[in-house]
Amino acid sequence: EVATGMALNTYGTEVALVLLVGFVANLVIAKFTPFKAIFLTGQHFLYFACVLALVFIAVGLPMPVTIIGGGIVLGFCGAALPTLCQPFMNKITGSDNLAMGHFNCIGYAFSGYVGKLFAGSKEKSDSSNVNMPKFFELFRDFIFSVALFMVVLFYVAVIACVVNGHMDIVLEKAGNDIWFIYPFLQGLQFAAGMSVLIYGVRQFIAEITAAFVAISEKYIPNSKPAVDCPAIFPFAPTAVLIGFVGAFVGGLAAMAIMIACNSSVIMIPAAGICFFSGGTCGIFGNAYGGWKGALVGSFIVGMALTGLPLILYPAFAGLGISGASFPNVDYNIIGAFLNWILGIFA
Question: In what order do the strands lie in the sheet with 224-227?
């Protein structure tokens, strides 16, 4: 969101027009090609439009080429990339009604294939079937697990801030002198928001699949709505938490590697990205490989979420987009490949 905001401040016209052309191209490609996903996650379409516009601008291409070329690539990716995830989506949801509309599709498919490496132990290691001591049965409740984990995470951050002499920042964030209650409330608020998301998504899935029947039957035959990743959270809620932890640890590992290699830019894993993208990786890894697939798949993708942005960061920094970048795997793999191809011809 930060990198997108900086891009829109300077290149808002180009990004907006790439977004518009991309949505039209998505519909046309879904109509006339085997790629039938219609990408409905608007904010991710916007983020990818930023990435593509910046890549075209960075190599010095004129505005019309940026808009048309970027829009076509965006529309193609919106229709085609969810196809990589479709076999796993069918396994997770038990039907063929939904596609994955989140531009980390390469990462999700990769996590799914990593899960297949553990397929032999799936029944025993399924995240929903893991045997726990009686005390830990509470953790089978997804919202309780998220609340506890986030409270601990906020306390770690706040205590680290206090220990390092930044009590003024803690008091500013807390808004009062009772700073030690602040991380507890923040963790509970996060869990409350997640509960609203989870239970609301169940209704959303029922509504959108019914509403999409007319489009699929009359206008774009066999098309599927590609929806945001929380749509599949209710199918394996425990795997979401495992994936979050795996991706966050993987991101920290990638950051440690950057520090060890004396990288001039150090990417810090964002908890929000690790939760949504990492949690979804956990669900895909769990589909065939249980908790082992969820953990290993999300860990590797978590490293990619933090490490891959280094590829395009110099090009974006040259345009004034620095201090933040675009983390998801699709942005960086497609963007880096496109940057390389355009660099040859430009």
Answer: 37-39, 224-227, 99-100
Q: Residue 261: helix, strand or coil by DSSP?
A: coil
- Three-point CA angle 204, 205, 207, nearest 5°: 65
**pLDDT tens by residue, 172-214:** 888 888 888 999 999 999 888 888 877 777 677 777 777 777 7
Residue 118: phi and psi, rounded to 5, are -110, 20
Question: Is the separation of the CB atoms in 168 and 112 below 8 Å?
Answer: no
CA-derived radius of gyration, the chain: 21
d(CA 285, CA 95) in angstroms, rounded, equals 18
Query: Which neighbouring-strand residues pair with 37?
Result: 224
pLDDT at 174: 87
Tokens at residue 67, please? 């808009």
- Give the C-alpha distances (Å, rounded to integers) separating 161 from 167, 186, 188, 329: 7, 16, 20, 31
d(C-alpha 274, C-alpha 55), whole Å: 25
**C-alpha–C-alpha distance, residues 195 and 143, integer Å:** 6
- Checking DSSP bridges between strand 99-100 and strand 224-227, what pairing results, if any? parallel
**CB 166 within 8 Å of CB 210:** no
Pairing of strands 37-39, 99-100: unpaired
For 100, list phi and psi in degrees, rounded to 5.
-85, 110
Among 52-56, 63-67, 139-143, the range scoring the smallest mean pLDDT is 139-143
Scanning the chain, the segments in alpha helix (DSSP H) are: 2-32, 42-58, 63-93, 105-116, 122-125, 142-163, 167-174, 182-214, 237-260, 271-273, 279-307, 309-317, 329-345
Beta-carbon count within 10 A of 262 CB: 7
Q: HSE-up of 126 (CA within 13 Å, CB side)? A: 11
